[in-house]
Write a structure and sequence with these properties.
Elements lengths: L3 H13 L6 H13 L4 E5 L5 H9 L5 E6 L2 H13 L7 E5 L2 H4 L8 E6 L6 H11 E10 L15 H15 L3 E6 L5 E6 L1
Parallel strand pairs: 1-2, 1-4, 2-3, 4-5
Antiparallel strand pairs: 5-7, 6-7
Helix pairs in contact: 1-4, 2-3
């Protein structure tokens, strides 16, 4: 169940035409952050802060969420949402820019969890970066693994569906990951780094 702050963030996202994680997917994010005792988390795609609040609520009290988005306006809203949800500004590091430009500047092996909620065209590059950024035992979560219900339809050949299939296949076949697709919300591809 979402509280009024999360509901406000969700309605602001809808007003802006931004998709956001479902409450069910949000609870999975919180669970995985808590299970890993996450202190350092990267979120690719800040939006209005819906998923960020879920992540922060699962993280350690001294944890810091690094969240990346190209839209300054979205980040301004998210900053307010994080504060209204009770998180000190020191708990978030909000970075404006394209994820593919920002990720190379982040430290190797320094993160406990990475949540990718970005354009599907960036999935492959983001998952490659996650392998470098996560500590062993760290968790990668990619939102949208169901490709809007098209993932299991062999006739679906659009770019987004093909990209998601390739990402899932690459992680499943890699020796570096222990993966699972969690059928919550838009589908969460979760993988633990070996």
């Amino acid at each position: 169940m979402e509280d009024p702050v999360q509901q406000t963030a969700r309605s602001l996202a809808h007003e802006l035409g931004l998709p956001c994680v479902s409450p069910g997917a949000g609870s999975v994010l919180r669970l995985l952050a808590a299970a890993g005792n996450a202190k350092a988390v990267v979120e690719i795609g800040t939006g209005t802060g819906v998923s960020g609040v879920w992540l922060l609520r699962g993280m350690r009290p001294d944890g810091v969420l690094t969240t990346i988005d190209v839209e300054h306006e979205h980040q301004r809203i998210a900053r307010r949402v994080f504060l209204e949800a009770g998180f000190a500004s020191s708990r978030t590091r909000i970075i404006s820019g394209r994820a593919l430009d920002v990720l190379p500047r982040l430290a190797d092996g320094a993160y406990d969890l990475i949540f990718v909620d970005a354009d599907t065209t960036e999935f492959a590059a983001c998952t490659e970066a996650a392998l470098r950024l996560l500590r062993p035992g760290g968790v990668l979560i990619v939102n949208g693994a169901h490709a809007n219900g098209r993932i299991s339809d062999p006739s679906a050949r659009d770019v987004d569906t093909l990209t998601i299939r390739e990402t899932v296949k690459a992680i499943r076949e890699s020796e570096d990951w222990i993966p699972a697709v969690i059928p919550s919300g838009a589908g969460l591809l979760a993988a633990v780094k070996r």
